[in-house]
Amino acid sequence: MIEIGYTTMTEQRSPKDLIRDFVAAEEAGFDFSVTSDHFHPWLEEQGHSPNAWAVLGAAAQATETLPLMTYVTCPIMRYHPAVVAQQAATLALLSDGRFRLGLGAGENLNEHVVGAGWPSVEVRHEMFVEAIEIIKLLFNGGYASYRGEYFDLDGAKLFDLPDTPPEIGIAASGRPSTRIAAQLGDFLIATEPKAELIRMFGEEGGEGKYAVGQIPVCWGESVEECKRVAREQFRWAATGWKVQAELPNPVNFDAATTYVREDDIAEMISCGPDPQGIVEAVRPFAEAGFTHVALVQVGQNQKEFCNFYEKELKDALKEL
Predict the structure, then answer these.
(1) For labeling, which of 48, 70, 100, 137 is most exposed (least CB within 10 Å)?
(2) What does the record give as EC number (predicted)?
């Protein structure tokens, strides 16, 4: 049976609200949680973007059993990979081993803020490989040094390291990134229910490893209100991954989605109170071979959504 997770989307909630959301998700019985790691929101209307690692540290203390995960952290620009390794090791200890490290090659939206420019996708992948190698090297323990084309590490050691390092998940959208995920990761991360990603993952060496997907929904009593909220908060998703990785600021996403209609978003996102709509949205992930799917509740009704999951949606999803 597929595991169902809950997404704390930092772009749409304040830090304290996010901690309350973690607690609500644990009480509702979600199998795991994932947390976005942004510097900027996608749109000004979302209105938030606290530091994900600070939020996760607080969540590790506010919850007891809910697995935690970054979805995803980019270790090639805002953060040096050594810093990511230290953060992940610390969080693994704070959560008593409930943390998994999700990594990806990032978006211009968040990474350009350090003023280093935005490399081509080929260069980003090369940087990404070096970053993962450094993180894994530090997870092995002891002093370590590394000399790469993009990153150096000079006599670094993690003094607070769990006995079992966090599993590393790698976000992938095509053959090159799927190869990186299979060869350097413990599991695959993807946002589209494409069976070919699972197939390529296996072909590149990921056979037997699991895959985590994610899907937005907008649950609420009124279909029309859900469509309004989904368009206001999530119209950025209509641009597609190649655009999402390249635009630098929320104002650019606003301009790119001016003509996206509520009905356009409703074709992408299940809107309204019907649990079966969410079941049918998750089904393609299960059929493609994903073992885990995290739901993103779009908007502010997070506690209400968790109650809905506990009372109705959890049982409805069991058919998958």
Answers:
(1) 48
(2) 1.-.-.-
Per residue in 188-202, pLDDT (tens digit) is: 999 999 999 999 999
Q: Which residues pair with residue 271 across a beta bridge?
A: 218
What residues have CB less than 8 Å from 86, skipping those under 6 apart? 138, 158
Cβ atoms of 52 and 86 within 8 Å: the answer is no
Residue 305: name the closest of 1, 3, 2, 4 by CA: 4
Query: 122 to each of 102, 119, 198, 285, how far by Cα in Å?
Result: 20, 8, 22, 28
Q: Which residues contact 123 (CB under 8 A, 6 or more apart)?
A: none
Residues with a known catalytic role = 38, 107
C-alpha closest to that of 206 among 226, 190, 224: 190
Cα–Cα distance between 222 and 228 in angstroms, integer?
10
Q: What is the mean predicted confidence (pLDDT) over 19-33?
A: 98
Instruction: Please tell me the distance from the alpha carbon of residue 237 to that of residue 218, in angstroms, as a whole number.
Output: 13
Q: How far is CA 60 from CA 50, 68, 85, 303, in A?
A: 16, 8, 17, 19
Q: Is 153 exposed, middle or buried (0-12, 13-18, 19+ CB in 10 A)?
A: buried
- Please answer whether residues 66 and 25 qualify as being in contact, where contact means their C-beta atoms are separated by less than 8 angstroms: yes
Distances in Å between the alpha carbon of 89 and those of 77, 82, 165?
Answer: 20, 11, 7
pTM of the shown model: 0.97
Eight-state DSSP code of residue 204: I
Contact 28, 306 (CB under 8 A): yes
Digit-coded pLDDT (tens) for 54-70: 999 999 999 999 999 99
